[in-house]
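anyone seen this seq b4? input:
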Amino acid sequence: MAEKDTNLLVYGVFSERSDVEQRAGLTPDIVTRLKRSGVTCLVEAGVGLGAHFMDEDYEKAGARVASRDDILAEADAVAFVGRPSTELLSAFRPGTWVFGAFNSFTDDAYVASLKEAHLNAVAMERLPRQLSAAQSMDEMTSQNSVAGYKAVLKAADAYGAFFPMMTTAAGTIRPAKVLVLGAGIAGLQAIGTAKRLGAVVTGYDVRPAAQSEVESLGAKFLDLGDEVRAVMAGQGEGGYARALTDEERALQQAAVDTKAAEFDVIITTAQVPGRKPPVLLTQAGVMGMKRGAVIVDCASSDFGGNVEGSVPRESVVTDGGVSILGMPDLASGVATTASQQIARNLADTLLHFLRDGALSVDADDEIDAAMVVAQEGETHA
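predicted toks r here
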């Protein structure tokens, strides 16, 4: 173990590589950037291999490649792409700062474990992303953008025909008709990517502002009828789609189910941060689609997805020949770009809390008040 320089804040990042996770929470360019701000970086061996960053790349940038035990012993702050296990939380020194996505909106037991370990915990999912000062910290936006791009590539690969219209010696091939449900960051990226591949694209979202956003990308906005438009108009806080009432949900589902039969590919991207995703396409809608159609459910999870019948990390083919791809890990499939973006988000969040050479919480700061879910010395009541 190297002797710690007490004049520098030590920032540690573990390798989180697994069968479904290839992203890294720190990239070599961010190591250089943090060093200029008085932060020294420790990375676990192999941290960036899934995103094609070698240990030597980190060392050249100024980081030290260390063991997991060394990081636990020396780091003042640690950051995660995913969520650290409760076993790992108990191994941290009291007072360690932990940055990551904790599912803190719904998992009270996990938040309690952060408090019981006497950690300072910053929940990335709680970032007030509508603030201009928060934009560079917004990992949800950066990772959803990557996921929307990858969703279209997965759909195109699974679809048994061309996306663009093509004129060949054997005749003209019509373009694929693609519907994107949810016009947030992931949805808009999916719309733009599908358009670039030459598909005829339609988008839909319950937020009134979504229509102009969809149409600005050259796509059509799905018309569900005057009744649905009147009842469902609304937008949630922070730019997210709000949760729908039972009546609104039933109207939307019935209308979308009916329209689904017109499309070759459907991509669903509607998520409510930290909560169960809404069902946008029911079994009836799936059954009405033509044989060979493809559905990519970006919100598929153990808690359910946007599409009835989707299974996370599996491709399900219905009796009617419709493929449903449950894909919650799409950003990991573009690991280099996703790592570069999330590393910047995490680092900028760290630097936000770095004041006068030390990490601290400002109770009057709107970002601090929103994101800090545990502080050293605080215990679960």
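The longest helix spans residues 139-158. The first strand starts at residue 9 and ends at 13. kinda curious what u guys think
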